[in-house]
């Protein structure tokens, strides 16, 4: 997969993309990220990328010309183009899975009060939000999308870091995890995890996932694939 990011702050993304799992995956060529500096496409003599809003109001608006040129000059025609915006659909694990199946993505990071609407009409038909709050710019939102997508790409997570069992992937929140020591400040690791009985461990984890989801995110249970045993367990929690 190739991800192109249009931004006026490419350095902001560079630092975050050079570390840890994503940094290693990029270095190993598991996927590619190209940072495109919108400012380099400005035809304005001062290389401006923003101006005052028509109609008045606070703040500045990103000019359409540098964005549309940056998009068109870097487009392959195969990419799914997305403007990171609080107006967009809210990102979920389902959308992340959908994006991870794309061959190419082009992400636009806004700044100031946002982007001239015509740039969006011409180049970025889709908008995606990372939540119902407002950031100062789309760069952190783009990093969230890249990070979540990257970990689903083949070869990005090591064999020890499976993406299969995790919160939202199964439709439920993940069960509690424990590591050494077996006892910490008087708190013991649940006995079932120590006895090597894989069927019992799997059932315990499933029930813990159901219990946590029931307690913290009951809304998720409506869409989760549940079998008879799961339903009986949830009924026992209700009673
Ligand atoms: C200060 S915000 C602009 C907010 C805009 N005036 C509004 O009320 O919708 C600047 C930029 O940050 C990005 N941004 C802010 N909040 C976001 C969110 N929740 N999800 C994705 N991008 C966001 C967008 O790219 C946006 O153009």
Description:
The chain is α/β, with parallel strands linked by helices and 239 residues long. Helix 3 runs parallel beside helix 5, helix 4 packs across helix 6 and helix 7 packs across helix 9. It folds into two domains: 149 residues, SPOUT methyltransferase, trefoil knot domain (Alpha/beta knot); 56 residues, Trp Operon Repressor, Chain A (Orthogonal Bundle), CATH 1.10.1270. The model has no long low-confidence stretch (mean pLDDT 96). The protein is elongated and about 70 Å long. 37% of the residues lie in helices and 17% in strands.
Q: Which small compounds were modeled alongside the protein?
A: S-adenosylmethionine
CATH topology of the largest domain: Alpha/beta knot
Strand residue percentage: 15-25%
Total count of domains: 2
Distance between the termini: 48 Å
CATH architectural type of the largest domain? 3-Layer(aba) Sandwich
- Mind telling me the C-alpha Rg? 22 Å
Which of globular, elongated, flat, extended, rod-shaped describes the shape?
A: elongated
- Summarize the main sheet: 5 strands, parallel
Helix content: 25-40%
Mean pLDDT: 96
| Quaternary structure type | single chain
Order of helices and strands: EHHEEEHEHEHEHEEHHH
Query: Uncertain regions: pLDDT < 50 for 5+ in a row?
Result: none
């Amino acid at each position: 997969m190739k991800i192109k990011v249009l931004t006026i702050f490419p350095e902001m993304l560079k630092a975050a993309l050079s570390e840890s799992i994503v940094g290693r995956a990029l270095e190993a060529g598991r996927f590619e990220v190209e940072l495109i500096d919108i400012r380099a496409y400005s035809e304005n003599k001062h290389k401006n990328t923003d101006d005052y809003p028509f109609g008045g109001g606070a703040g500045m608006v990103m000019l359409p010309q540098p964005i549309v040129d940056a998009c068109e000059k870097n487009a392959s025609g195969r990419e799914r183009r997305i403007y990171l915006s609080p107006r967009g659909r809210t990102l979920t694990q389902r959308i992340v899975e959908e994006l991870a199946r794309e061959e190419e993505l082009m992400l636009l990071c806004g700044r100031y009060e946002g982007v001239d609407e015509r740039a969006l009409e011409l180049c970025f038909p889709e908008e995606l939000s990372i939540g119902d709050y407002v950031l100062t710019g789309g760069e952190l939102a783009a990093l969230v999308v890249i990070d979540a997508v990257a970990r689903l790409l083949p070869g990005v997570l090591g064999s020890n870091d499976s993406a299969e069992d995790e919160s939202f992937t199964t439709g439920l929140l993940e069960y509690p995890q424990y590591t050494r020591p077996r006892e910490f400040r008087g708190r013991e690791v649940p006995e079932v995890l120590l006895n090597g009985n894989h069927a019992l461990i799997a059932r315990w984890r499933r029930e813990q996932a159901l219990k946590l989801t029931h307690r913290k995110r009951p809304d998720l249970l409506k869409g989760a694939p549940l079998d008879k045993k799961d339903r009986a367990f949830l009924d026992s929690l209700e009673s």
